[in-house]
Amino acid sequence: MQIDEALIFRLEQLTRLELDDAERQELLHDLNHILELVEQMNSLDTTDVAPLAYVNAASTPLRNDVVGPQATPEQALRDAPRAADNCFKVPKVIDL
Amino acid sequence: MAAPKYRSLAYVQQLLRSGSLCMEQLVAHYLEQIAATQHLNIYVEVYAEEALARARALDVRLAKAPASLGRLWGMVTGIKDVICYQDHEITAASHILKGFRPLFSATALERLLAEDAIVIGRVNCDEFAMGSSNENSCYGPTRNAADPERVPGGSSGASAVAVQANTCLTALGSDTGGSVRQPAAFCGVVGLKPSYGRISRHGLIAYGSSLDQIGILSHNVADAALMLEVMAGPDGFDATASSVPVDAYSALLAPDRPMRVAWFREVLEHPSLDEGVRSLCFDFIKRMEQAGHTVQAVPFEYLDYTIPAYYVLATAEASSNLSRYDGIRFGYRSPSAYDLQSTYKRSRTEGFGKEVKRRIMLGAFVLSAGYYDAYYAKAQQIRRLIHDRFKAIFQEFDFVLMPAAPGVAWRLGEKITDPVEMYLADVFTVTANLVGIPAIALPVGVHPDSGLPVGLQLMADAFQEKALLGFAHHLLAQP
Predict the structure, then answer these.
(1) Partner residues linked to B260 by β-bridges
(2) To the nearest whole angstrom, how far is the Cα of A93 from the nearest Cα of chain B?
(3) CATH number at residue B172
(4) pTM of the predicted structure, to 2 decimals
(5) Is residue B448 part of a domain?
(6) Is B197 in Cβ contact with A17 (below 8 Å)?
(7) pLDDT at residue number A96
(8) Does the N-terminal peptide bond of residue B155 adopt cis geometry, omega within 30 degrees of 0?
(9) Which domain holds residue B44?
(10) Residue B309 domain flag
């Protein structure tokens, strides 16, 4: 598997990152280098091996459904880059 | 490094009780140490006034209500810049979180504070805990106190140096693939990564959620054991925090029978393993045998697959976890953004550093349509094989011995241009995270050529911290 520039463009879109040409070339080189390492996995036969997503077998415990500590609107907005009228302020999303 | 003036909590509490030391003097001592080691770039923020105020309040309580003092009275600790402390800035060493102040403290930290620990400051790390050298930080690299031209390891590099340079008694780190144990080894301190789920991750900034654990760096096993005992246990804010009962880890019981310890020929004969580290491993094996334990080589055929599987899984989880940094609700927003998409893209592009972007991209790739089965699912299958192999080993053995790293601390800049070389430095640590088992890095001496610290690690089956800590404590206590 070789990652090409078209795939990097697609990954930029998926990850909401944008690279300049020099960064793109560097990343292309780095990812292909890393993939050589990753593809060592192919030499191991894993036929019929069930994937392991989570190591602890115990079921997820449920806590009582009671109201816990909550952030006030002022607290929630405290770290917002921009806020107004008790809301997060974002660039215009809908064109009318 | 000079021997620490205050080498353990037990010793500090003895001095406090005898009246020859008070908490204010203790905190003042550590603040002086912090000032004297600024060239190592350990702390990104020092809570001097707050720590002194807490210390004075504790001194008053000793006089008025000594019975009210918590188990961690006398404990001065530093916290990695990925652990939330209410109303204190936290950044994960990233521009994208500059100025962010969490509304709550991590559960682990809450529990330490409730037992009267004092947090003296917030320490540097690799950005979002991604790195093995502490060089991927928006604050610049932290330096190893044993040789300031060398890295301290990572990602909890500064947590290790904070203890190594005697700026606090213990420090909290986090360990996703070795980020507590590898820097502990490079800095000559103890580094404990508990079982997955032993300590709540609530308030720990997420990197790889199926692998992340908060860990402890300390001068000795006893302090790590007590810190673990206080922090461990279920938490209503983290469904993955285990409800397996918390043992009395701090009892540090000596093994009641000869222990069985396994080591891997594939590891100790690995071409990347430094000769000096290898010989210290065999010295340690001899030491265990002389103490009456059985030590035996067993096969581990998956060693070469651990790093590939780990980096696929960790980056996949990271790409998902780090999608929350969008410039909308908190953190950095690019001033040049003009619409919603450019707000996301420019804020993330300008906010994240190079290694973080690399891992997000790799993670998005292994999860994307057409590649998922070949990479992500394959890595999960390999994780199963490694997991099952370790479970089988623990049917016959109590512990597994491995080096904590293939060599000693390298020079600043030496590996920063080659991500693969940097990733391979984690070859002996990622296994414990993949399997979810506890592992402790122990300082076993200095390298015969360079004189730099060397650490080995012992691993036990999941939730066997009590046996692991007791064994490690008694081994280190023997001459």
Answers:
(1) B294
(2) 6
(3) 3.90.1300.10
(4) 0.97
(5) no
(6) no
(7) 66
(8) yes
(9) 9-251
(10) no
